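Spend some time on this chain, tokens included, and walk me through the fold:

. . .
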Amino acid sequence: MKVAVAGCCHGALDKLYETLELLQRRHNVRPDVLLCCGDFQAVRNEADLRCMAVPAKYRHMETFYRYYSGEKKAPVLTIFIGGNHEASNHLQELPYGGWVAPNIYYLGYAGVVRFRGVRIGGISGIFKSHDYRKGHFECPPYNQETIRSAYHVRNIEVFKLKQLKRPMDIFMSHDWPRSIYHYGNKQQLLQMKSFFRQEVESNTLGSPAASELLQHLKPTYWFSAHLHVKFAAFMQHQTDSKEELPKATKFLALDKCLPHRDFLQIVDIEHDPNASDSLEYDPEWIAVLKATNSLINVTPSSWNMPENNGLHAKWDYSVTEEAIKEVLEELNHNLKIPSNFMLTAACYDPSKPQKHREPVHTINPQTTEFCAQFGLTDMNHRIQQGKEEGSVRAEYEEEEEEEMDSAGSAEEPSEYNTDHSGLSSINPDEIMLDEEGGEVDLSTCSVDPSPDHPPDFSTSFSDIRIMPDSMVVSSDDAMDSNNEDLEKSGASKQVEEKSLNERSLKRVGCNENGNSGMKKIKRRNQAIYAAEDEDKTE
């Protein structure tokens, strides 16, 4: 089947689907599914905008709300993971995944689904060591810390994914697995993104958690985004035994959805022609969720996952074939994910903007139904219970203080860990939220919807490479690699030139408003935002 893979969407959903439509019209290529590797920005209204960890000038309504309201419907099944610039309050409603709009499915904090027999997994967010061992405790309204920590990867999601034993076809992460750049054309990468050099040479660029998953899952394909550059790699995995056949992963990172950028790739992937055309649950993943349910943590307290170190009675939460069979029996062997999307928030109305709409913590019926069906903990319900219990406890303590005629109250220590000194990697492409203290203005948002009239297709479209047989890594893409298998997988220069001649698609411009004054930003971000301003003048 043909799989379209996109990098950072940044809310430009109309532009993405228009590009796919043009691809079909000009080249008769119609993808069966679209995978988006984060920064999807499923923004429904002004309150959602306030929950995105970006400066106010980057908060734009874009076009997702039209798909949420039903005004439009995604023309192709779309599956996405979260990045570090999301409407976190919306995605938080679906910790185990679910529909954010008809035909648009979010994989959750971590998730695995099946489509036409192809197993698709993913993990949302980016890695930050200071939040990695915490629970998912955040909820709206967010403060200056939780608006960011809400999208940080947690160890429990990695632990769940590491319990999987069955082969993985496709896996998605927003940030790159650490060290993957050593398996591709590193020199070319550093020519395009010279400010990566220090972290590449010190092997600190990317996510160690994603790298751990790459080593464990060994998927056939791994797709990422985040660093706003196209990069391909081919990783041959070591075998655990002589009898085991060696596995390899084809890695591809893509750029953001802007004119003249490599943000979209078509990949032809083998599938089961007898499998269902519906999006389906993965029975092993459901069994793992059930097995690890007791490990759920919704507090900011740090804790480690069970290990075989003598401190835990149980550390292996992988599931047996019998447990998987039980899941199938629970579902009567009907794995189809129900089309149970429903609105949980008011939709943006361009004629009646409400810039002061406040975000609220919402329990999504999809999550309630999913948890009830499989006997899982609804994290949001537990967070709300904790808040209510904390409120009652606070009122009781306040009454006690009044009875004791206390003269003033001592300042309570912060429950959040604000020590950032333990960061194992500085991501040069993460937006600095403010040039001084790194704070986000939570009280403002810019409502700037896309124009109602469709853009002219004859204007600029980004390049799209169609690889009908499989995603290959060309010899140019992997110039640094000494792996002979990598060279075998690369397309010949003639095939590449033919592909270049065939691809003449340029994506619709992203409604930029020209150059704007750039504030001073930290050195590690200067290059990328200088490049972004250049994009706006193209």
Observations:
- DSSP finds 16 helices and 14 strands in the chain.
- Confidence is low (pLDDT under 50) at residues 399-429, 434-438, 448-538.
- The radius of gyration is 23 Å.
